[in-house]
């Protein structure tokens, strides 16, 4: 279980201090954060940096309404309510910035290197260790709020069969128990740095470059894209908004939404 007093002490001086909302079990931390934001008619009462986390999710969600298994005490399930001072066109970069933050936190807490699979998967080798779900409300091309949900497998030692991507946990990869508390503190501090950088229009190229460096999926990878822009081709980098470019036999496709898998070999 989390030590909330110690968390508050470790997060003193950050935007998250005094804004932690913990429950033992909930349906979804993203749903909790969204409900708080939607219930705030003036969009100001629930402050930027509010953190919603739980020991267990009963209806955890991933991108595309995929379920996220969230057993009690096994993983890190956290959602952060942000009021980003960025144009709506830059929202696509938010999960990328969150991916950088999660990778840095995992490395700090466990020593493991993370491969970022666009747009929102955290991989260790070929196995999935976590994911990111960003949900936002936009009015007149201005984001009113965005909820960044991050789930990381920490203590799990077994996973259901038939997963689209084989799963793993931090404990399995390092062979010892990783502290969820340490990971959460590192994650929030990294997320604050990355989202602050995202607000700086001149820093976006640097963010995109770091995403490319942290990912084996962004450039030169044969992939199948699943979703409304389904296609097969070779990844050719990110555009200025963080969308993935894929070179296909029919030409260059800029993928704005969807999931990636390694292309099946002939």
Using the coordinates shown, work out and report the CATH topology of the largest domain. BirA Bifunctional Protein, domain 2
Rounded to the nearest angstrom, the distance between the terminal CA atoms is 48 Å
- The fraction of residues assigned to DSSP E strands is 25-35%
Name the CATH superfamily classification of the largest domain. Bira Bifunctional Protein, Domain 2
CATH class of the largest domain: Alpha Beta
Number of helices: 6
Q: Name the overall outline.
A: globular
Poorly predicted runs are none
Return the CATH architecture of the largest domain. Answer: 2-Layer Sandwich
What distinguishing features does this structure have?
single chain, 266 residues, alpha+beta, BirA Bifunctional Protein, domain 2, SH3 type barrels, 2 domains, 7-stranded mixed sheet, 5-stranded antiparallel sheet, 26% helix, 32% strand
